[in-house]
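We store sequence with structure; for instance:
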Amino acid sequence: MTNSTMGAGALQGLRVLDLSRILGGPLCGQILGDHGADVLKIEPPQGDDTRTWGPPFRDGVASYYYGLNRNKRIQFLDLATQDGQQRVRELMARADVVVENFKIGTMEKWGIGWEQIQHEFPALIWCRVSGFGEDGPLGALPGYDAAIQAMAGVMSVNGEAGGDPLRVGLPVVDMVTGMNAVIGVLLALHERGRSGKGQLINASLYDSGISLLHPHAANWFMNGKLPERTGNAHPNIYPYDVVNTGSSPIFLAVGNDRQFRLMCDHLGQPDLGSDERFATAGQRSVHRVALKAILEHILASHDGVQLADQLMAIGVPAAPVLDVEQALEAPHTRHSEMVVRMGDYRGLGAPVKLSRTPATYRFAPLVQGQDFLPDE
């Protein structure tokens, strides 16, 4: 997809000063920019750390950086200097939103923290992305995605049954924190429409990591039992797991009794759907080991990809297990415009689609900008 339309966007006219780096804050800024905000990103003279997080590199800048800094213009400032601090204060005077993820206390040391500027700019919305928030036993300490996955219990429920705890293969905590930061900005903007006042938003990696624990937290609240790692299988539902076929494995996501009976009928095994061990969701979960063995025996005569397509067509959720290249080149990925192309830049598209004010892609990463764009 190529979309460089200078359309309005849902957030046209919103001015965002992105002082963040690494992932959570920059992702927040990119999402706001995709939906029309004018995002001016301030980087230190050496640039955002993620410029070096490669390979691969293009013109000395890592792909990691390219993935998080679209629809922004950049300016280089040393905020540890008086000139840099004065320039940022001038930009704050024109901004609607500030996004930052400095270690708590850093901007205050420079005299440009929330406490120092909120009375000067009472309508400014300040979004702080941090590791653990400002206070509490871990307050103001730095946080990192993998460490939070470990501390928040995420690793404890991820991995093969009987195996060791395993980090999720994506920076899921950082990414969810960035999305939560966007939610916070939009909530604060809505409230500012009533009060005319800005406010401080705290989006911490730790809180976001804890928030990911469904359904394990809900299960523990009810029965007090520590969840065990179940590999690809869902702890509450079965078959909700990767199963082997005669060719490639597929994922079955059978969520209710009707879907299970449809699958059994399609496989020519109606008696399996009425077997008392498998007739209800609760029983299928209890007898999952036996059910998986039976299913894999039946599926050994089926082609995985073809079967997944057939099951989806009759309303039974199923999917082939694709690699990243296959997923990005899939026909539905193209149809959903989830790959963005601007010149030699390619990136992931905006997942939220608005009918009248869709996302637009106006600036590839690394575009220079010395100020906010002129008023419309």
Residues 127 and 185 are 7 Å apart (CA to CA).
